[in-house]
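Dear colleagues,

For the upcoming journal club I promised to circulate an example of a predicted protein-ligand complex. I picked one with dinuclear copper ion because it came up in last month's discussion. The inputs are reproduced below in full, followed by the predicted structure.
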Amino acid sequence: MFTNLLKKSLALIVITAAITSCKPRGAASAISGDAASKVYVAPGKYDEFYDIVSGGFNGQIGIYGIPSGRLFRIVPVFSQSPESGYGFSEETKPMLNTSHGFVPWDDLHHIALSVTNGVHDGRWAFANGNNTPRLARVDLTTFRTAEILEIPNSAGNHSSPFITENSEYIVAGTRFSVPLDNDNGDVAINTYKKNFRGTVSFISINPQSGEMTLSFQIKTPGINFDLARAGKGKSHGWFFFSCYNSEKANTLLEVNASAKDKDFIMAVNWKKAEEYIKAGKGKKEAVKYAHNQYSDKTHSATSTMMNEVLVLDPKDCPDMLYFIPCPKSPHGCDTDPSGEYIVGSGKLAAVIPVFSFTKIQQAIAAKNFDGEYDGIPVIKYEAALHGEVQKPGLGPLHTEFDANGNAYTSFFVSSEIVKWNVKDLKVLDRVPTYYSIGHLSVPGGPTTKPWGKYVIAYNKITKDRYLPTGPELTQSAQLYDISGEKMKLLLDFPTTGEPHYGEAIPADLLFKKQAKIFRIEDNMHPYVTKGEGQARVERNGKEVHVYMTSIRSHFTPDNIEGIKMGDVVYFHLTNLEQDWDVPHGFAVKGSNNAEILVMPGETQTLKWIPDRVGITPIYCTDFCSALHQEMQGYVRVSPSNSSVPLTFSTGKTAPADTTKSVSYNGPNK
Ligand code: RUQ
Ligand code: CUA
């Protein structure tokens, strides 16, 4: 017995040694024995937090549980999704409309959750599109994209969305400076210094509906805006934007935009900007940008082309903008829960500078300036500085906070998270990340009341952490326990798309408000079919509209004849179910489209242009009942000159009922 046990534990030691020896240094020691129990969410139990994570160049948002790291849902935002039909159905296509036309993809970087009094209120998640400058609002009762707003006078919306203390505004700072929309853009690229400009935009949020409105823009020098955070508490009314390329280089930025010792954090007094707007200092500019909104009543999106924006020029607006020098190529720019401290993270800097809001105000009052940059006062570095964190690590990127006065900074180059005290700037702890961490997030970390408990690392590189999958490896996150003095690695979990940033919110705040169905009585879709008795097929010239219903386990109608080559067929499918979690899918063989996935009480439309004569099957794609596989039907396509009458039926066997042939009286009666 005893010898058996000894043998077993010996074997275990050997195995452990074998595993740890091929792991990077620190990996084994970082994982504590109780890690497994801390992330284990037993079957049937719920996670403690929702983590709402950007999907980067996949254009979506992923919804994960914390601490388990389980993926619950992919919410398509700027990219089409074949799973739900988002961006493929007629109703959702307008969501992806822009002034450039239909842009079915974007590069989604940052999440901002709505806040009231600086605390998560669980209403909306905002996200930025970095490619074709856009902002999106996701409704956290449906986990669907409710609105997308394009940003004019911008090129690459990276410094975005970031939110003020009461969700008054989200912002959009242009990543690329370019000639603005109304300037002559046909200029030599090496005239950058003369012709290229930046803007930062303030987008107001309707406190009831969440609707986004482009309130005003501020013209800035031609620099690149990177990140931003709103002031809060005592600094409420201010916004801080990090920027790089104050050199205004137009080529080989990796060298030419790192020439100077310091770039800037731009401090914006947005309350002041509001006053200038009220006083009529804003100039109306003719621009073009799309505003797209989805309605849960009509189950359809509309896209409106907007044509005007109010622009403030700092020349006419003193005391609105200030630059604070920040070493060196700053990336993250984060405000602590009190709003007193602003942390700059110079990607190439050897220290982390921490600025004091009080000192910034004093410096402004005393005009303690170091000259101007393009006419905008530059506050003296030392005058704004609270202090520097010494020898923190290499390549600081982003900082988040807990509720106990500690900061957590990610270091890309040295692949670690460093914990330090915000007041005395002492480094308290460091843990490795695997590898090359970008953002990190503490639940509630950017709010006035961090929920704390964990820090989540969002990593860029995962070599040797997961089973390899060809040239491309998964992106991933790592979960650390920060409830004690020392940070402890608990879990690695893969993510879909590049996880730039995420915000975690207590599950309680979202759990009870989840929509379960759409009430069929409230369905105001112009092509709704509110019962099987109303199901029909109507021809309007070459257009055929199928008013179709689904309920377990059949479509009505499920036999359609009289479709001809040259027709354009619209299947308007209404799901009559009124139970939670009973969507029906719908697909057509050979259709140059995705499926549509229709929720209970909802109507969605699949457009189909038949390309050949014959019988085309249609079927339900979502396993909805024991007889899901039987949920299918047929469409007969005849030559364009055929005289087969338009008929439809369900439950009829041969021969087709020609008496039900419908006259060609249009879709809208
Ligand atoms: S960025 S890895 Cu696109 Cu937020 Cu810092
Ligand atoms: Cu409906 Cu499967």
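Two points we might discuss: The CA atoms of residues 281 and 312 lie 7 Å apart. The first strand starts at residue 49 and ends at 54.

See you all on Thursday,
B. R.
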